[in-house]
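Progress narrative, work stream C.
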Amino acid sequence: MNNNLLYTVEDKPPFGLSLLLAAQHLLAALGGIIAVPLVIGNVLKLPIPDTVILVNAALLVSGIVTIIQCRGLGPIGIRLPSVMGTSFTFVSAALAVGFSEHGVAGILGSSLVGAVVMIAGSFFMPNIRKLFPPVVTGTVVMMIGLSLISVAVDWFAGGQRSDANYAAPENLMMATFVLVIVVALVQWGTGIFSAAAIVIGMMTGYLLCLALGWIDFTGVKEAQAFALPQPLHFGLSFPITGIIGMAIAYLVTIVESSGNFLALGNATQTEITGKHLRGGILCDGLGSALAAIMSTTPFSSFSQNIGVITLTGVASRHVVALTGGLLVLAGLFPVFGALIVSIPLPVLGGAGLMMFAMIIAAGIQMLDNIERSKRNGLIIAISIGCGLAVTTRPELLDKLPIFCKEIFGSGITVGSLLALILNLILPQDKPSKVE
């Protein structure tokens, strides 16, 4: 982790450099932002134009909410460099509603009403902040990094384990090439070369892939040049079961986002207060309500981008607000997003593995500062062990009721909840008696 930030939260790098640095965050987040609407569109077998509307709205609203989260709007927003995007936490609940007679209208209506849970919950965040002492915070940050490693490994290998070309030697070599460039630039680069290490490494990898003929421009050719948002395109309906499912998912997201914001505070060297959490969670909830109206799925903060900050030392909220502007453009000009999506997965994997591992390192450093006691050891071990169990073997939950999968399907959620609960119920270690 960087002890000295190249750019602090309030710093404003020159516009040209800011644009390059903002592109790093865009590259790290774009795949995750479009993944959820693509999954929902494909599983529900929506017509391609409808899936495109979901994707474009996700990009556009992600940009708007990211800008508000970074710059603030009255009491709304954490005013730290946080990228916002569609969340996989809501996929199970969304598909359950989508397969009913209510379809996408039911998903969006349930999401709109369920967002009230997050909006209301934001006003209790100053009290909730007291439940996150260093042992809990460090455990949550470490669990965030650990849960992302499997994503980076699949990128590194070139796709999913079921793919025929998974872990092909050429994929591993390309990812390693990008990884080496990023590490070299972070370690020995100065100025822009260190700050923009991720985007430079990925651009170099992309150019090499282009020379090797690896780039598929089919999506770019098929993408629309310009697309206007279509509010309420699918309509809204309000099934009770869907609202309950979404409300549970929003409660889970409060825990996940709180962990992300605490990790963000560590990365930006900012003490996270209850006021920070209240503004951040309120922005989450209102952003998700806006997403429903604009015809896409709910939002949460992205942990991937915390790795970018940790690795590069660029903590400027103004840079990430510019990322929000790029996301708005991607939503209005789908061809722009399609070009970014054409980046081969091994190129993403080379940078991603380093970014996510740095979050783990940040968590370890936080835990290194706490008292070494049996109680703290139990909190860390049980929370991370159970969180990794769900992350590495999600089929553990297959035979449980669907609401259990919705609540405990995320390793971050399991680890965070256990750390919170164990910290509350385990008795403090008794001081040793002096003989």
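Work stream C, second folded protein:
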Amino acid sequence: MKIHRTISTACRYLTLLLFAQLASAVELNNAVGIQHQTIFNDSYRPLDITIWYPTSAEKEATLTADNAAFQGTLAAKNAPLKVGNYPLILLSHGYRGHWRNLNWLADLLVKKGYLIAAVDHPGTSTFNHDADIAAQWWERPKDISRTLDWLQHSVWSSYINSEQVSAIGHSLGGWTVMLLAGASVDAHAMRTFYNKHPNPRIESVANEMKLDNPEPMLAGLEDSRINKIVSLDLGLAHSFSVASLKQILPSVMVLGAGIDIGDLPVDIESGFIARSLELPTNRYKIYPKATHFSFMQLCKANAYELLEAEEQGDGIVCLDGEGVTREQLHDEIFQDISHFLTSEE
């Protein structure tokens, strides 16, 4: 009996060791690398970009995009890229946002086998806010196209599946990726709508970007290399001409927040886009318990109080609907996006 117990204990030990090794292998295979760099340094508009990618290197991962208020994710900085040919996703942040806002989504997508690149848009980012630069609104979609140009002519090019390029944007980033899809700005239509349906928050952004007095470049910002678009609770939807929305060719998924924070009613903004699109491959979904900020990174336990102490009203970015956690919302959002990106329609 004693020998039997010894053998049984040894078997259990070996089984646990095997499971540990398998878990380690899975973790290694799903490891995420990250790089930050500035491209087009010598141009009129240098761009700070962040790239997430699969890596199999045994390099220690550290928390990235983590601070006192927001949870980060694990990534190995400057780890070598795992050999492969990956679908590419380009990310666009919201008004006064930055690459960290969709860090959670980038992390999950890399673990599914994607290569992700995000740009901090000059003039409308957290750390580079300038009204004169923001007024050059057409540069936002061009930032994404220029990032794609650079990737396709760099060491990354051989790892990118150029037949599978998508763009995802949140808030003003959602507006930006719609321009990449082929939407064009119609200043008269925008003014007519918001005169009848005033929205001070959206109009203040429109005024800063000078959408009432746009440059002659009202069209031609689409990028035919991008074949799928995901818009996350966008604003300024009525700055687009309906005619241009009806002619969009890439497949589009429009996701909206069901809880209005006071300036982005989903039916008026995301719903307008969804109703205007004509392709049968388009998708539209509302998350009833999500707010506009539910699409951003996870908040830590004391984040609301911390942000309110710094600036009253800022804590709203950590509020979601009752009876649901942001992590649960992220899981549903990710599953919907993943299904859309992999569908062959």
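The chain has two domains: 1-27, 31-342. No further action is required on this item.
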